[in-house]
Amino acid sequence: MKKPISQNMMEWLQGELRTWLAEGTISPGQFESIISKYDSQADADQKKSKAFYTLIIAASVLAGAALLLLIGNNWEAMNYIAKLGIIFGITITFQGLTLVSRFRWNNIALSEIFSLLSCISFGAGIWLIAQIFNLNAHYPDGFLWWAIGSLPLAFLGQSSLLWFLVITLEIIWCFTEASAFSNSLWLFLGRNTNLPVAAYPMPLLLLPGLIWAYLKDCPKTMALHLIGFACWCLSLWIAWEFNNLGLPLLGSLLATYWLLGMTIKIKEKLAAATHQIGMIGIWPLLCIFSFYDFQKLITETARPDHVAGYATLSGFLFFIIGIAIFLTCCFSAISKRNSKSINSKEMLLAFAILSQLSLAPAISFYFSSQLTFTMVLIANGLMLVYSAIMMDEGLKTNSTPRFFLGVGTFLLWTILRYFDLFGEHGGMLGASLLFFISSIALIGLAFFWRKRKVVIHVN
Predict the structure, then answer these.
(1) Which end of the chain is more exposed for a tag (fewer CB within 10 A), N or C?
(2) Considering all CA atoms of the chain, what is the largest pairwise distance in Å, rounded to the nearest integer?
């Protein structure tokens, strides 16, 4: 059982332990072990309140949906004045409750919930007003203006709740914009260009949220915007008809996140969010690239035309960024200017994955199917190295998620390779035997981890 201490005492303890860790007095494992024995009262209260407010938020959203459905059931019976009155009335009411709960009741959580409902009713109003007056327009613009209208409220908020809504709307806008009217040439302010339609202003919409995440030191909001940027890049590649070449480029971006999270000197929580998004996000892409059939599909996609050339240039851009990060890190390590501790094994793995995925379009474009099998072997090797490093880091730092991420990666690799290579010969009996062996291995690892945790706590 953890010992409860005050929040100030917890911050003091963490500061002292970080100093001892930097001096080499204690190891990372000892750092985690000491911290795990204490729990601040503020943290305990926060954990209790999270479930409560999550349920309240879910109930509020369902209540809002019930209200909209009730209105929709009687919508045809109303005239347009009544319809407009209901739309504006609901939005203004929720916004008024937001202000009252924030400044009069001093209830931040309740004001965030009312603000969320206000943004939902604002978005519903956009579509309903268009229906009332039979307005036909470029429908992805509805999501764009909904997101723009919600941005000020999200920026003035105190949590990442509204940012989740804004990022979701922006992601929907990106993909609908890229796929709705692919033959249109409209871009900014009605000017025609030769570029395919896509959500090109998306970085401008992401910028306020990134500033907010930095000012508030909020890793959740940072993670949401990193995911939003990755989705925007993927929507661009869809608009440019990169097809399967978009996946290695997406993997290159995630590997870049991984490298940046290990090397950039920003606030610790934000760097950790960047690191984790890249490290975890690259995992499913490694699984996909370990298949020979998918690598062959990439080779067939990279035919000698302008689209494959643009994909190759995009991959080279990520490769250059990776080299710049890698060389900067090496220079800082040699000159001893970088005070941030960097795991060299993990950094080399991230750079190797970035190199393969970023150069995959170019290799497929210039060498066709000659290096397909080599690329598959490299992908499988990187997946095994990924598994080994995650397990090693999990044991060294006493991190349960990392250890079991490595274990899960290795077991998944085994299962994938069985079905990929021997599925037609082994059949259901072979698969049953493989799953049984995997379950025994997991049970053994679970007991090993439990025993190790007990030994660490005792020592």
Answers:
(1) N
(2) 75
Q: What is the CA radius of gyration of the chain?
A: 26
Report the distance separating Cα 345 and Cα 357, nearest Å: 19
Instruction: Tell me the CA distances in angstroms from 13 to 276, 310, 399, one per residue in order.
Output: 25, 52, 20
275 contacts: CB under 8 Å, gap ≥ 6? 257, 258, 260, 261, 262
Burial class (CB in 10 A: 0-12, 13-18, 19+), 386: buried
Q: Treating both helix axes as pointing N-terminal to C-terminal, what angle do 108-132 and 80-103 enclose, rounded to 10 degrees?
A: 170
CA distance 253 to 226: 10
Question: Alpha carbon 26 to chain centroid distance?
Answer: 33
d(CA 391, CA 403): 4
- 269's CB contacts (< 8 A; 6+ apart) are 217, 218, 219, 222
Taking the alpha carbons of 247, 252, 253, 258 in that order, is the dihedral positive or negative?
positive
Q: Which amino acid, one-letter code, is at 175?
A: F
**What average pLDDT values come out for the chain (459 residues) when binned by 10 residues?**
64 76 75 73 50 64 65 62 77 82 78 82 78 72 89 86 91 86 48 71 93 91 95 91 87 94 84 91 89 81 67 91 86 64 85 92 79 88 90 80 84 81 63 72 71 55
Rounded-to-integer distance, Cα 207 and Cα 224, Å: 12
Torsional sign, CA 114, 117, 123, 124: negative
Rounded to 5°, the CA angle 358-363-365 comes to 110
- What three-state secondary structure class fits 426? helix
Can you read off the two tokens belonging to residue 381? Answer: 């090797």
Distance CA 453, CA 436 (A): 26
Domain ranges of the chain: 244-459
Distance CA 296, CA 363 (A): 12
Q: Where are the beta strands (DSSP E) in 25-183?
A: 38-40
Owner of token pair 């950790």: 272
Q: Comparing C-alpha atoms, which of 144, 145, 150 is closest to residue 165?
A: 150
Q: How far is CA 341 from CA 142, 216, 258, 336, 446, in A?
A: 46, 24, 15, 11, 30
24 torsion bin: left (phi>0), alpha (psi -120 to 50), beta (else): left
- Other C-beta atoms lying within 10 Å of the C-beta of residue 154: 25
Alpha carbon distance 298, 271 (integer Å): 33
Tokens encoding 256? 């870049």
